[in-house]
Amino acid sequence: MLKNYLYVFFISMVPLIELRGAIPVMYGINTANPEFNLLLGYIVIAIGNMLPVPFIFFFARKVLEWGADKPIIGKFFTFCLNKGHKGGEQLQKKAGRGLFVALLLFVGIPLPGTGAWTGTLAASLLDMDFKSSVTAIMLGVALAGIIVGVICTLGFGAVFGIA
Q: Backbone phi, then psi, for 112, in 5-degree steps?
């Protein structure tokens, strides 16, 4: 049983997949093994999705800027910096003073590329303070978990390509 919890924990830590991919997997595990506790699974997934956030906030920007001019990894690192910058600028434009709410919604609406990883990178690039950005991202992860959970409960997870 522990293996299943570890499985969804590690899936929720993967960039771009994150919570949006781990929840449908969790529902599949629950279908095959009804004693799998969904509430505990949600908690494990949320922790797994939030665990990389402090590291991304404090170190990703520095690592990406360092690697942007390197021969093999430079293009990818530049792509990541540009994606974070673009996401941050869009948030700033739309939000104005409501940057906290914009970040929460950016992370909370389960669309590709709008999860905790991108939201944290955008918050770091926008020089948001750590406490408010982590709070917004945590609430966004909870919102995304509710939305994806409802979609999976209704049986539409595979139809909408969430997994």
A: -60, 135
Cα–Cα dist 113/96, whole Å: 22
How far apart CA 158 and CA 58 sit, in angstroms, is 35
Average pLDDT (78-101) is 78
Domain-located, residue 161: no
Dig out the tokens for 136 from the structure. Answer: 């917004």
> pLDDT, tens digit, for every residue of 104-155?
998 999 888 889 998 998 888 888 889 999 999 999 999 999 999 999 888 7
Helices and strands: H and E segment counts in the chain: 9, 0
Tokens of 14: 């993967």
Structure tokens at 62: 């520095």
Here the tokens at position 79 are 């792509």
Residue 84 host element (H or E) = helix 74-95
Other beta carbons within 10 angstroms of residue 70's beta carbon come to 12
Question: Residues 86, 49: contact at Cβ < 8 Å?
Answer: no
- Inside any domain, residue 9: yes
Domain hosting 35: range is: 2-50+146-153
Whether pLDDT at 23 is above 90:
yes
Number of domains the chain contains: 2
Place of tokens 């792509």: 79
